[in-house]
Amino acid sequence: KLSTRLERVAKHIPKGARVADIGSDHAYLPCYCILNDIASYCVAGEVVEGPYRSALNQVKQAGLENQISVRKGNGLEVISENEVNCITIAGMGGPLIASILEEGKNKLDGVDKLILQPNIGSYSLRKWLLDNGWELAEEEIIEEDGKIYEILVSVKGTPMKPYQHLESELLMGPFLMKENNEVFRKKWEAEMKQWKIILMQLEQAGENEKAKLRKAELSGRIELVQGV
Ligand code: SAM
User: Choosing a second label site near 216 at 20 to 30 A (CA), which of 65, 70, 149, 157?
Assistant: First the structure.
């Protein structure tokens, strides 16, 4: 059975889409999408040999070799231009997802939807989307097995559209802030607790330039989160 996290990612894939799942590991998501008649064709990309082998095995076992192409390579280099119209990247940090998109920019022309699931650091991912002509269209926050995940769905459009208070919304997500649900509050309460502990440690460590900068950054963030 697919994790709730990946099931939620799959929910955003348009019916009949041609999908590249980058960092696919076991290719669970592409298999699910084909078996459930969501995607018409998938590429499962993996950069590491072990997970690449797992993906190959999984696809073979499911008998889906004709609909899922498993490829080894870094980020978007595994797809050719206009091969897919939807990209999913899940289960990595936001900065890594942003760097995969940045390095693969030339492959994004024919793509109209990005479904991204950063485990941490979604600020840098929202920032990348905003700076590169992608409009944030939907966001979700979910909790599974005690972990909290965000899903960002982006389309080509008007990048500034969802934003009114840029810094806080890049950090916490404009849609998630508005919805302000229980999981969202839990996430930011936990983050604040962490930041306050780090702040206390920095206070004890004494004054140096680096500590001062870090303290200012953390205090700024705490203020943003407390403002919600
Ligand atoms: N997407 C699956 C999920 O959400 O359950 C797997 C997540 S797993 C934690 C991250 C996978 O991304 C690993 O298998 C890793 O090898 C792969 N990965 C990391 N950087 C990558 C890159 N630049 N290109 C392709 N795959 C990458």
Answer: 149
- Tally of domains within the chain: 2
Paired strand residues for 115: 88, 153
Q: Is the pLDDT confidence value at 207 over 90?
A: no
The type of residue at 113 is: K
Of 114, 109, 117, 121, give the one whose Cα is nearest residue 135. Answer: 114
pLDDT given at position 205: 81
User: Does the pLDDT of residue 53 top 90, yes or no?
Assistant: yes
d(CA 186, CA 136): 23
* Helix runs in 62-181, H state only: 94-103, 122-131, 166-172, 174-179
How far is the C-alpha of 60 from the C-alpha of 54, rounded, in Å? 10
Phi, psi of 34 (to 5 degrees): -75, -45
**Which tokens go with 134?**
């992608």
Query: Is 95 found in the same domain as 53?
Result: yes
Residue 91 included in any domain: yes
Based on DSSP, count helices (H) and strands (E) in the chain, helices before strands: 9, 7
DSSP summary character for residue 161: T
Residue-wise pLDDT for 112-171, tens only, equals 999 999 999 999 999 999 999 999 999 999 999 999 999 999 999 999 999 999 999 999
Nearest residue (CA) to ligand 1, atom 11: 23
In a domain, 168, yes or no: no
Residue showing tokens 């018409």:
40
Question: Ligand 1: does its nearest atom lie under 6 Å from the Cβ of 120?
Answer: no
Pick the atom of ligand 1 nearest to 91's CA.
4
